[in-house]
Amino acid sequence: MGKNNRKGITIVCPSKGRCSNVKTISLIPSLVLIVPSSEEEDYKKFNPNTKVVATPPEVRGITKTRQWILDNYEEVFMIDDDVVNVRKNFENESPKSMVTDVGQILEIINETVYIAKEIGAKMFSFSRTVNPLSFSGHELFSHTGYMNASYCGFLKGHGMSYDLTMNEGEDHYISCLNMYKHRYCLIDERYSFLTDGNFKSLGGCNGQRTRESMIRNTMHLREIFGEVIACKEPNAVKKNVNIGERTLKFPY
């Protein structure tokens, strides 16, 4: 991937309760940390070389935080604080498949932004592939599907907003809303942003994510979007599924 002069998108990282353990900074040092006002000083103390922006006290929870980000950044790429690797899915051999160069990671993001703009997409994301052997060289990009909030971008004119009644599952909601409003997106299947700590580590959304809330939000999503929302079932790749996890099955 060659160098270019395209202006980079603003990369923000919503974080809570992890001031001393923002793993994503090692991959993208130039990101902007978006944190609760009550934790602003702690984040600045532990991350002195990273820009820290505090949300107002009334902005509580990940969904309201993401909405605040949309309200304050016209074009933005949101990435979670527990991303530990970027992988080339078209490379089967590790460590060759891992992208370790900071500049190259930024270039991957900005090239995907460029492609998304060229095709008129208003949202973009990256592959959710866990096993690189699942990657198909005939499908470098997808234009429908679930866009994980852990690595998801919004472009000028998206005109969308989150359902603030939801304390999790906001990425399923916004993925469905994008398909309803814009009919397609851009998912770059060539690269995966790998996280570590979902459902188990301290901080983040794990304090609010419960089995009851996941079931409630899944039913809420189903009431809005119908059979597009389905309960996730174990498969060969992911044998352990949390009760309340859901999947999206778009008809096109």
Describe the structure in your own words.
By secondary structure, the chain is an alpha/beta fold. The chain contains 5 helices and 12 strands. The strands form 2 sheets. Strands 1, 2, 3, 4, 5, 6, 7, 8, 9 and 10 form a 10-stranded mixed beta sheet that branches. A two-stranded antiparallel ribbon has the order 11-12. Strand 2, helix 1 and strand 3 form a beta-alpha-beta unit. The radius of gyration is 17 Å and the shape is globular.
SSE diagram, text form:
Layout: E1 10-14, E2 32-36, H1 40-46, E3 51-55, H2 62-72, E4 76-79, E5 83-88, E6 98-99, H3 102-119, E7 123-127, E8 141-142, E9 151-154, H4 170-182, E10 186-195, H5 211-225, E11 229-231, E12 246-248
Parallel strand pairs: 1-2, 1-4, 2-3, 7-10
Antiparallel strand pairs: 4-9, 5-6, 5-10, 7-9, 8-10, 11-12
Q: State the distance separating the first and last CA atoms.
A: 31 Å
Give Rg in angstroms. 17 Å
Helix content: 25-40%
Mean of residue pLDDT values: 90
**Major β-sheet profile:** 10 strands, mixed
The secondary structure category is alpha/beta
The number of helical elements comes to 5
Number of strands: 12
Report strand %: 15-25%
In short:
The chain is α/β, with parallel strands linked by helices.
